[in-house]
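Re: the multi-chain job from yesterday

Posting the exact lines I submitted so nobody has to dig through the queue logs.
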Amino acid sequence: MVSIAELPKHVGEKVQLQGWLYNRRSSKKLQFLLVRDGSAMVQGVLVKDEVAESLWDLVDGLTQESAIRVEGEVREDARSPGGVELGVTGVEVISGSPDYPISLKSHGPEFLLDHRHLWLRSKRPQAVLKVRDEVTFGIRDWLHKEGFINVDSPIFTPNACEGTTTLFETEYFGSQAFLTQSGQLYNEASAMAFGKVFCFGPTFRAEKSKTRRHLTEFWMVEPEVAFMGLDDLMTLIENFVGALVARVLENCAEELKVLERDTAPLERAVPPFPRLSYPDAAEILRGGDTGFEDGGDFGSPDETELSSRYDRPLLVHRFPSAIKAFYMKEDPADPKLSLSVDLLAPEGYGEIVGGGQREESLEVIERKIKEHDLPKEAFEWYLDLRRYGSVPHSGFGMGIERAVSWICGLGHLREAIPFPRMIHRLSP
Amino acid sequence: MVSIAELPKHVGEKVQLQGWLYNRRSSKKLQFLLVRDGSAMVQGVLVKDEVAESLWDLVDGLTQESAIRVEGEVREDARSPGGVELGVTGVEVISGSPDYPISLKSHGPEFLLDHRHLWLRSKRPQAVLKVRDEVTFGIRDWLHKEGFINVDSPIFTPNACEGTTTLFETEYFGSQAFLTQSGQLYNEASAMAFGKVFCFGPTFRAEKSKTRRHLTEFWMVEPEVAFMGLDDLMTLIENFVGALVARVLENCAEELKVLERDTAPLERAVPPFPRLSYPDAAEILRGGDTGFEDGGDFGSPDETELSSRYDRPLLVHRFPSAIKAFYMKEDPADPKLSLSVDLLAPEGYGEIVGGGQREESLEVIERKIKEHDLPKEAFEWYLDLRRYGSVPHSGFGMGIERAVSWICGLGHLREAIPFPRMIHRLSP
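And the result, structure tokens for all chains:
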């Protein structure tokens, strides 16, 4: 038994493979079977005059997604994907698939999402999720080569530190626990222990918004580095994103073709990326028609307007301190600004990375906790990181589904995760 | 600025590094600084007669975990870890660390767990979590090389499919969601789409037991393979575990030494592993003093008794169907038995892998759902996998903390995860 991906190594040989019938076309004299086994797809050909009538009839009755064992001769065929086709000499049915609900014609998104467990077998989700796999493994591979170690932060957290409105909550043996929205605070403890760390896991947000940019459950990678300032962080982010995109371009050319992704914008995502300060960005947006409010966070139209001015991803740095979390370090040159940075993907995909330098002074961070009206007790352990050998440090988070959506050119995050969870979707 | 791990490349050079003071010893004429930066540790030496008095005095006042910048000359020193030491010529204090709570003497486990955010800086947790990093990355690396793709299963699930007693629950926009205990059912859908898949994420169990073998939040890798039966699954498991252990032995020799791990049992974990059927295991246990109940699951003493008879991990297969989940395939040779398998680690570590062949017949699995008194509606999507191109398939799950505990020789799972969560522990 060989896998379809290995067929090019077996040209001229008779082989057996097993998989599912993806599609079948037939004329009076020929039948074409498209067979998939997860590793790849291959076209099998039957010529009526050359095969037994029983085989011809059996194949003629096969429906989409039947599980089959196929025997045949591997032939070179330059026009086929993988460069080979199969001259079919035998077919055995493992199990049938009557009335398979997903035809190769188009279906509405709700129908497809209701059948996500089957939809995964179709070409487009296969391509997207293979890119996702390349991205997630590429992230780990790159970070390890750069000397990072994976230190996972907990999912259950004891305090609703930054407001409860978007937190999921669970009963925890008589008390309450909240599902993490970010591993960052824990990451800071890990960075003081291991220097360069990352956590990478699911995070949760009880988003009531039903936009194409929101999931309730999404995966995030968060690197954190001791002794790193904002400038070096921006270099880290651009090298990280640049390397990931380059890796996908190299290893997923076939998948990007299936997705009809214009790869030109990806090929331009080569560091260094342009860097724009928030004040300069505000200068551009002020008086425009994006609805930008001075001193406020960017809306989607603001992000699109800004990134349309550049040919590659854009680093926007130094957002106002007032709109950033308490742990974000103030810019010594202007404390109204923070040493924060967002990476905006081109083509209207908006923010895919957010990060910054963290405040390392105990005194300042105690003041910020008070200003943000947060319960200090909950942060005692976090303050310990400033009491014992505090050093400058920085980090960022990248949402996996947002990155995959941009790289694949998707219209909605829900396609970028195997089993999406949204306000009105908790199944299958 | 160089990292401590890179020092061997700089012998004879003057370098600057930054990190934290792990320990300091001094006599009248000499001071020894042990400095860590997350990448490694190095010993710095000051000779009183050779340095300025101000430098001597500054170093003399440094406390554990002070953040410092150190300048010095890299010298070969065969006795030191990494083979180098540093002739210190300058020290600059980045920030102090008065009254650091964790001394190098011993502390009780509760105290250390309460200070986990700082305890991570100590040698032992550093070693364990570096092994964990090697294990988790090694898993992904090995599976990718074997042609698996990572398809993550969801954390939020709509139904309490196998009883609610150990499930965590959360309000989900007016309805209920449960936190996953296993990605397996979803994995089966993914395997029918991609052939060879794995999910790898946190799983949750509201365990009220307070044993050293239980966490409420733990990580699990779950590979699943289409067209695979039990025998090939056992081969997959032994190759997987064997490769992981070999990788750790190769890349984490230093860490295992810190942990004083006897590596002999690890070196013997070379496939093939012995295979023992449940009936044969029961034959051994029957009449012994482990408290074994015929037909029941193994307790910890049973596992220890069985594995003590072999020199490497043990595969026990064909547990009674009655004690296994509804989706486990019955043995065609004896339907009272299931095509299931556990891997028992040696030295009393017990089960670290559990898996089996899944039932692929729609008719049988519908009957099993009825017998297990489960709500059929909740499984309609899962039954679709048997309606459309059903094929034999198998998979397993390995608990990361259990595997790391065995490899590191730990007494409790809580040390094998950065921030452990147990019935009485939800912080820091």
